[in-house]
């Protein structure tokens, strides 16, 4: 393949390519290492599909962070963690999920090496790399390997690899600053960076680089979008939905009441709850509950986007040594403080924690039974003269704020060079992540129980609702508290790798690489203070563990004949309790200069993480599900069930299982690259990944049907007969287990067209399309779930769904000092079902399927950016995100955003403007 064609393919598809080394080139070509291989090559095209994102791509996108950009990739799917997911386990972090297989199956590297994971596992289960720690201005390029690479990098590369490569060998100084705000004059952001470097490695023998970046984003509330149709709204009655949706509170149903700001008392005669007076002064909802409750919605308090303050520091130094060696070192520090506002606490939660002598089940139900919070018989607000159960949302205590302060550091020291014809690289890496959580306005449950129900307590009586103004400050000091935790992860690596050309084959030089790695991982994620014994209104979430991993690998690239190149690799990993051997083979055939066929087969694995296998690990997650007892067949059961039972937030307790086996995977790709015309490039790749022995909790819908699910005692009453164990679902048990498999199949298409326009400059059009043909999860031989084109999997990933098609189109025009770029991102519609063939997951108030046709509309956004070089030093730039101000479709099922899909956040925030300047000395 000619050098011109290789360069065209590399630029067009951002697909790394092997060198064609038959013959000696007249001009030496620099050899570089491509993600997924340890063998250096002179060009960039391999048998594996790889997408390359350049500094220029990042700048033209108008995105403010690496995570924001990567989450627009068509290969990103369910399990991706957006900034606005404040009620998730890993709030304050961001992550990418290739192929929708979860962040834990996407390996993220920094300069080709691992980083310590975020210090709290997502869903209490999945360890992942936080993209928020990466300094945007320091990025040189990002390589996304779209097939598995466990044969090179080890565990977690099942869905692919994201290798973020930072700048090196930079000289000079660059100052950059930008500000932004939405069309609503809110959501302001500011960001500034300085990049400085001196010394040219090739000429002067050394280089030092320093990048400093600081940024701040103001909090954006859901109520700030009250006039943006359904965005951020908990009350969807204007659009035909019932009042009792997942973000509603205060409503009363037969024998039950959700937490209400006035307080609702259970009538000891009828068994029904009755609201106390004073609702108008507490709830902003005007169309009130016909059943007499004090109706309110979460948007009265909850954040849409968090307050963020962040700082990044990255330094790199390199020194040429005698004999062709180079000493290098990297050091990075990142701090990101986020703060979310959530709803006020409820006095009647059901909490789970490790069993103890007092509570051998490890569960306390503060709503019913012996531990129920009650209002004492002689409490001034109790008209019944006997202790009565209470449902109360403590607006007087105030909304809970969740602060997540994450600090990340990483240091690398290494040597590389050439010895006896071998290129080698060896280094020691130390990486550490620390997370401090601080949840305000949590309830001290023993003090609360005394203040409401024990006349002998010095805290009694605690006045609630409309009379809360009578309480002294000392009462709140006793019943409200902050819950905190300090979590850490640590990663230490010692690695070595070497490569060289061995011999000449008919198609070129044969390459060989080998390497070894020792890795120590440690996680210490204690639960929030007070959750260890159920004494606050939150469940226990903790994980602890450490492990040593030793690995060796070997890789061969063989141009067996002219135009045919075969590569193969195998890696052996040894863990404390098991070992794994993962092979990979790839073939590329280039029959003519402008056309190539390629394919790969790879195997991968993922070891059980400490959150999944640790005996000290436990978590309780919540997801939306249909109660199989109170809403059979999608219809509320007779005797007191309502539509709220058909879409209920189900809590599920998950406990570490030391007997788990590793997940394993097999992946196949088959594709072609083609340059039919001089300025036209085309690539098409089909792919399939099958992940077996998957580590999953029992699906929530199945756990809800088990007899050990914990329910309230508002049992259904049919023809005067109480139906036992049919009360409102509170908590289920969903233990970790190795389920059967998940198989995902699809197609990627990349197109690029260049136009040379003479005096009018040049233009480029690009399109990337990912089609998910099937996304099937098999729990057993008989239980299969198909998620492609549906809203599932809702057990994880904030229920963002699995659209069958995602498309990104980029049009860029350059003329002299000006660049204009337009980017359109599209996701296809999804059926509003938990899995294919299931009943519609949401209903209108009249009982019909919602949204209309039980389908969530597709969503397309258009972004614009411009850059203008005033002179050789000063550049001005601006961008408009969601320039058409498209409103995100109404999504009644997701719990990651209020009535909109969290992956459609730009359609919730609205049109957003940024303006900045860059000055280079």
From TrEMBL:
Q: What is this protein called?
A: TonB-dependent receptor
Where in or outside the cell it occurs: the entry states: Cell outer membrane
Where the record annotates domain TonB-dependent receptor plug, the positions are: 44-161
Chain residue ranges for the region called Disordered: 608-628
CDD domains on file: ligand_gated_channel (cd01347)
Q: Any idea which UniProt keywords this protein has?
A: Cell outer membrane, Membrane, Receptor, Signal, TonB box, Transmembrane, Transmembrane beta strand, Transport
Residues in a coiled coil are: none
């Amino acid at each position: 393949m000619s050098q011109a064609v290789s360069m065209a393919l590399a630029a067009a598809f951002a697909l790394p390519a092997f060198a064609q080394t038959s013959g000696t080139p007249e001009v030496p070509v620099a050899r570089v290492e491509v993600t997924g291989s340890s063998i250096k090559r002179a060009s960039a095209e391999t048998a594996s599909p790889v997408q390359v994102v350049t500094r220029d791509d990042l700048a033209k996108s108008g995105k403010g962070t690496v995570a924001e950009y990567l989450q627009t990739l068509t290969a990103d799917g369910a399990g991706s963690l957006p900034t606005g997911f404040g009620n998730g386990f890993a709030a304050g972090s961001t992550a990418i999920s290739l192929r929708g297989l979860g962040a834990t199956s996407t390996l993220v590297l920094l300069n080709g090496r691992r980083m310590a994971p975020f210090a709290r596992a997502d869903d209490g289960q999945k360890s992942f790399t936080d993209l928020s720690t990466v300094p945007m201005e320091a990025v040189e390029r990002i390589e996304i390997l779209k097939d598995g690479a466990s044969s090179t990098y080890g565990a977690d590369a099942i869905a692919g690899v994201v290798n973020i490569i930072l700048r090196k060998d930079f000289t000079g100084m660059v100052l950059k600053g930008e500000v932004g705000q939405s069309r609503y004059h809110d959501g302001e952001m500011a960001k500034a960076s300085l990049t400085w470097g001196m010394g040219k490695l090739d000429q002067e023998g050394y280089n030092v680089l320093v990048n400093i970046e600081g940024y701040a984003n103001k909090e954006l509330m859901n109520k700030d979008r009250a006039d943006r149709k359904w965005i951020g709204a908990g009350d969807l009655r204007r659009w035909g939905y019932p009042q009792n949706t997942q973000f509603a509170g205060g409503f009363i149903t037969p024998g039950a009441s959700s937490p209400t700001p006035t307080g609702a008392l259970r009538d000891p005669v009828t068994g029904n709850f009755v609201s106390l007076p004073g609702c108008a002064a507490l709830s902003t909802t005007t169309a009130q509950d016909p059943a007499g409750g004090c109706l309110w919605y979460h948007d009265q308090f909850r954040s849409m986007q968090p307050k963020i303050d962040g700082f990044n520091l990255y330094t790199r130094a390199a020194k040429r040594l005698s004999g062709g060696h180079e000493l290098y070192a990297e050091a990075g520090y990142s701090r990101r403080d986020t703060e979310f506002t959530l709803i006020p606490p409820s006095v009647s939660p059901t909490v789970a924690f490790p069993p103890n002598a007092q509570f051998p089940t490890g569960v306390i139900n503060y709503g019913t039974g012996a531990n129920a919070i009650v209002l004492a018989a002689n409490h001034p607000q109790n008209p019944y003269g006997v202790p009565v159960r209470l449902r109360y949302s403590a607006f007087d205590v105030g909304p809970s704020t969740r602060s997540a302060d994450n600090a990340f550091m990483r240091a690398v020291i290494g040597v590389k060079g050439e010895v006896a014809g071998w290129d080698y690289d060896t280094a020691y890496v130390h990486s550490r992540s620390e997370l401090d959580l601080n949840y305000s306005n949590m309830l001290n449950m023993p003090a609360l129980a005394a203040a409401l129900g024990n006349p002998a307590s010095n805290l009694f009586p605690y006045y609630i609702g409309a009379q809360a103004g009578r309480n002294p400050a000392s009462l709140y000091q006793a019943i409200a508290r902050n819950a905190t935790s300090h979590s850490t992860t640590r990663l230490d690596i010692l690695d070595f790798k070497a490569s060289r050309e061995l011999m000449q084959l008919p198609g070129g030089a044969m390459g060989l690489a080998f390497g070894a790695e020792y890795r120590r991982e440690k996680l210490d994620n204690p639960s929030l203070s007070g959750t260890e014994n159920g004494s606050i209104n939150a469940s226990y979430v903790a994980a602890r563990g450490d492990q040593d991993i030793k690995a060796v690998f070997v890789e061969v690239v063989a141009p067996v004949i002219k135009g045919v190149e075969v590569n193969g690799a195998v890696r052996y990993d040894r863990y404390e309790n098991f070992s794994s051997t993962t092979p990979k083979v790839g073939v590329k055939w280039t029959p003519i200069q402008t056309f190539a066929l390629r394919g790969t087969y790879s195997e991968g694995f993922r070891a059980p993480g400490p959150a999944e296998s640790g005996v000290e690990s436990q978590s309780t997650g919540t997801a939306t599900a249909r109660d199989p007892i109170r809403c059979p067949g999608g219809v509320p059961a007779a005797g007191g069930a309502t539509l709220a039972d058909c879409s209920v937030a189900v809590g599920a307790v998950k406990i570490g299982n030391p007997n788990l086996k590793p997940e394993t995977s097999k992946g196949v790709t088959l594709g072609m690259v083609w340059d039919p015309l001089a300025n036209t490039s085309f690539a098409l790749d089909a792919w399939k990944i099958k992940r077996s022995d998957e580590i999953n909790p029992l699906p929530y819908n199945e756990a809800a049907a088990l007899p050990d699910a914990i329910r309230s005692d508002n049992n259904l009453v049919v023809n005067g007969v109480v139906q036992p164990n049919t009360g409102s679902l509170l908590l289920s048990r969903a233990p970790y287990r190795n389920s059967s498999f998940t198989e995902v199949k699809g197609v990627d298409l990349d197109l690029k067209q260049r136009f040379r326009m003479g005096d009018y400059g040049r233009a480029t059009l690009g399109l990337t399309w990912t089609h998910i043909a099937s996304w099937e999860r098999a729990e057993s031989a008989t239980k299969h779930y198909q998620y492609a084109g549906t809203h599932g999997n809702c057990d994880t990933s904030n229920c963002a769904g699995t659209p069958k098609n995602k498309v990104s189109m980029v049009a860029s025009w350059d003329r002299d000092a000006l660049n204009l770029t337009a980017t359109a991102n599209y996701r296809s519609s999804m059926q509003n079902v938990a899995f294919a063939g299931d009943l519609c997951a949401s209903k209108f108030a009249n009982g019909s399927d919602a949204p209309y046709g039980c389908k969530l509309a597709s969503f397309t956004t258009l972004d614009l950016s411009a850059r203008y070089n005033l002179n050789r030093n000063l550049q001005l730039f601006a961008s408009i995100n969601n320039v058409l101000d498209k409103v995100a479709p109404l999504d009644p099922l997701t719990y990651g955003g209020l009535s909109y899909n969290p992956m459609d956040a730009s359609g919730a925030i609205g049109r957003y403007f940024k303006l900045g300047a860059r000055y280079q000395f």
